[in-house]
């Protein structure tokens, strides 16, 4: 398997707090890695570091063989290779749904408006919200907004998609409409890193589980191994609370 995201001995502090402790892991092309762990364990910081939304103290992160640049145009391009979907949908509030999905394509990928619109409509269709294209984000339900956020990220033709608790802010009845889109992506071979508490999704779509606690990767296993036979006491304790 070809490595796509390589995280090598990465450390990160917030002041005195050591939030990423010597993190090393590789996400391969087409792999779906599910990151789970208690609140505050560093899951979001790891995602944000992969997308360079956070700096790191030391270590390296490479995306498809390229080291993350510090800033500038190269960073914008590399960031476009890494699609990110957040818990809070983060759509541009003053742009229509369609504009949300075309802007990055036009500005970063340098597509014509017509090409960007065509691609956006295909993706909105695919996530089931094409009929909302001319609306403002606030007119959509949470589940619809999150699906637009996924379409927006996909429109950049990312090499990897990072999802940071994409369903945590949703009403229960909307969780599955978002998870279904994610399962579809996984089945099509998209490389994905997914932070989630949805254990059904982890079992169904995950190929590898990373269990984080207190800034460390404590356990790395297949979903089958992890859920039936967690090795570390911390994973056992975590699972006993959520399952
Ligand atoms: P998780 O996503 O697993 O809940 P986070 O990566 O959000 O964990 O946070 C890890 C730790 O870092 C937590 O203790 C959190 O309070 C702290 N933290 C996160 N972001 C910041 C920040 N910008 N400044 C200071 N501390 C932060
Ligand atoms: Mg988090």
Automatic annotation (TrEMBL):
What Pfam families does its record include? Answer: ABC_tran (PF00005)
Where in or outside the cell it occurs: the entry states:
Cell membrane
Going by the record, the broad EC class of this enzyme is: translocase
Report domain ABC transporter positions: 5-239
Keyword NAD annotated: no
Gene Ontology CC: plasma membrane
- Catalyzed reactions: a polar amino acid(out) + ATP + H2O = a polar amino acid(in) + ADP + phosphate + H(+)
Q: Which UniProt keywords apply?
A: Amino-acid transport, ATP-binding, Cell membrane, Membrane, Nucleotide-binding, Transport
From which domain of life does this come? Bacteria
> What SMART domains does this protein map onto?
AAA
Q: Which family does it belong to?
A: Belongs to the ABC transporter superfamily.
What's the protein here called?
ABC-type polar-amino-acid transporter
Classification of source organism: Bacteria, Bacillati, Actinomycetota, Actinomycetes, Micrococcales
